[in-house]
């Protein structure tokens, strides 16, 4: 067993980045693919090298552990899957940083509570239409039935994909465990920490989020012989709906955001009026009430556009995650760790979704952010400087050590010292 030095953080992130789907513009590492398996296997070896006695759970999460005097366990970690053509830091930093922290905790003579690191098998929802498969399994929120019915675009079920990696979907319930608290280290994925010159972001809440599949059905007819007045053009209607999403986003950006990231003309050709279009909406807001209001506005706009263009529209909600507040006691522990190390910090609301959003519904949870250069994320040029990476893992280590010594009050309603949102400004 060896204790990891600070230079290891960036080196290991770059080593993971090389495990990607061939031909990717960045890093593409999707759940239950060869690149994914290679990455989890590498993480397993790193945990083994650090003396953390690693194991795979029923869905493919990889765990390591430092035992304390009590079975009560503090959890840390993040995910190693990526979006298509993503970056080297999103998720992976929280895994690599947590292994670094536990390698140092392993050297401590006495810990009251145990500490565990997890490399979640999936968070992004880039392969199957479900996000946070790994953390949902850990919280006991998925079943063997989910593995059978949830399929990728090629019709391959989660169960079939798991079988290919020698994971038994019938044992999914065995992945669920109890923890006292969860702390996730992550890059910000937005521009705010860098713009404000802060070392650390103490996350106060995670925006609620929902994702829709919207299907617009018109009539496919000959492009040359069908007069404009006689057309029921699904693409024209869908395009107006996309612009409606942009209009709603423009009117509410300080409290919510909406995006269309995919649009497909089904069976389209150059000489046909489009008759079938599918697009996807991502909607987020700082409160669930705001999100519901924005969703109602979009639904109303879509229905009006469908009526005026002679098409039909069907909306399927694939994801519905409510806003989650981070634990105030844990926020104060993180802030205290920053102060003791002379690091600048600020409270920040996360507009990006995380495993912490799933876990934070059940146990005290917190997040530590480090800056993202130019706010760039989900992109091959995603970057955080080595010294910023090291500051984040140093704060994580001190935070975990305090929690492992049995800090009282975790989960109690306390107030973080500074406001969580600056009025009228954008948060990443």
Structural overview:
With 428 residues, this protein is an alpha/beta fold. It has 2 domains: 8-206 and 323-404, Aminopeptidase (3-Layer(aba) Sandwich), CATH 3.40.630; 208-321, Alpha-Beta Plaits (2-Layer Sandwich), CATH 3.30.70. Helices cover 33% and strands 22% of the residues. The chain contains 12 helices and 13 strands. The protein has helices at 8-17, 34-49, 92-105, 133-138, 144-149, 158-164, 192-196, 234-252, 288-309, 328-340, 355-359, 386-404; strands at 55-56, 62-66, 70-79, 113-120, 181-187, 200-206, 208-217, 256-265, 276-285, 312-321, 324-325, 345-350, 365-370. The strands form 2 sheets. Strands 1, 2, 3, 4, 5, 6, 11, 12 and 13 form a 9-stranded mixed sheet that branches. Strands 8-9-7-10 form a 4-stranded antiparallel sheet, with helices on one face. A hairpin with a 5-residue loop joins strand 1 (55-56) and strand 2. Helix 1 packs across helix 3, helix 8 runs antiparallel to helix 9 (288-309) and helix 10 packs across helix 12 (386-404). The radius of gyration is 23 Å and the shape is globular. The model is unreliable at 411-428 (pLDDT under 50).
Protein traits:
428 residues, alpha/beta, Aminopeptidase, Alpha-Beta Plaits, 2 domains, 4-stranded antiparallel sheet, 12 helices, 22% strand
Any chance you could write out the topology, listing elements then pairs?
Layout: H1 8-17, H2 34-49, E1 55-56, E2 62-66, E3 70-79, H3 92-105, E4 113-120, H4 133-138, H5 144-149, H6 158-164, E5 181-187, H7 192-196, E6 200-206, E7 208-217, H8 234-252, E8 256-265, E9 276-285, H9 288-309, E10 312-321, E11 324-325, H10 328-340, E12 345-350, H11 355-359, E13 365-370, H12 386-404
Parallel strand pairs: 3-4, 3-5, 5-13, 6-12
Antiparallel strand pairs: 1-2, 2-4, 6-11, 6-13, 7-9, 7-10, 8-9
Helix pairs in contact: 1-3, 3-12, 8-9, 10-12
């Amino acid at each position: 067993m060896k204790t990891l030095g600070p230079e290891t953080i960036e080196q290991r992130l770059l080593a993971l980045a090389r495990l990607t789907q061939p031909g990717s513009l960045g890093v593409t590492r999707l759940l239950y693919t060869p690149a994914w398996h290679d990455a989890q296997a590498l993480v397993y070896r790193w945990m083994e090298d650090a003396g953390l006695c690693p194991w795979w759970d029923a869905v493919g999460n990889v765990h390591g552990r430092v035992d304390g005097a009590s079975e009560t366990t503090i959890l840390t970690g993040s995910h190693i899957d990526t979006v298509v053509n993503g970056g080297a830091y999103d998720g992976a930093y929280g895994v690599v940083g947590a292994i670094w922290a536990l390698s140092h905790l392993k050297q401590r003579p006495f810990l009251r509570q145990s500490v565990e690191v997890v490399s979640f098998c999936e968070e992004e929802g880039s392969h199957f239409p479900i996000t946070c498969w790994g953390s949902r399994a850990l919280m006991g929120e998925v079943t063997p039935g989910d593995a059978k019915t949830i399929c990728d675009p090629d019709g391959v079920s989660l169960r079939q994909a798991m079988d290919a990696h020698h994971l038994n979907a019938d044992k999914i319930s065995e992945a669920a465990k109890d923890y006292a608290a969860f702390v996730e280290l992550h890059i910000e994925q937005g521009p705010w920490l860098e713009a404000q010159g802060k070392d650390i972001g103490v996350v106060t809440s995670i925006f609620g989020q929902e994702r829709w599949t919207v299907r617009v059905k018109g009539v496919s007819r000959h492009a040359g012989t069908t007069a404009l007045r006689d057309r029921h053009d699904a693409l024209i209607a869908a395009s107006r709906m996309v612009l409606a999403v942009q209009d709603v986003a423009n009117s509410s950006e300080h409290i919510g955001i909406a995006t269309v990231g995919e649009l497909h003309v089904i069976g389209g050709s150059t000489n046909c009026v489009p008759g079938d279009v599918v697009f996807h909406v991502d909607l987020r807001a700082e409160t669930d009430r705001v999100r519901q209001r924005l969703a109602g506005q979009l639904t109303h706009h879509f229905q009006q556009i469908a009526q005026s263009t002679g098409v039909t529209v069907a909306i399927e909600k694939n994801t519905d995650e409510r806003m989650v507040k981070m634990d105030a006691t844990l926020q104060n522990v993180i802030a205290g760790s920053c102060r003791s190390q002379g690091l600048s910090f600020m409270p920040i609301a996360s507009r990006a979704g995380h495993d912490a959003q799933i876990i934070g519904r059940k146990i005290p949870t917190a997040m530590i952010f480090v800056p993202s250069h130019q706010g760039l994320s989900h992109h091959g040029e995603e970057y955080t400087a080595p010294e910023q990476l090291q500051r984040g893992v140093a704060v994580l280590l001190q935070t975990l050590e305090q929690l492992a010594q049995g800090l009282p009050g975790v989960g109690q309603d306390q107030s973080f010292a500074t406001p969580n949102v600056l009025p009228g400004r954008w948060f990443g």
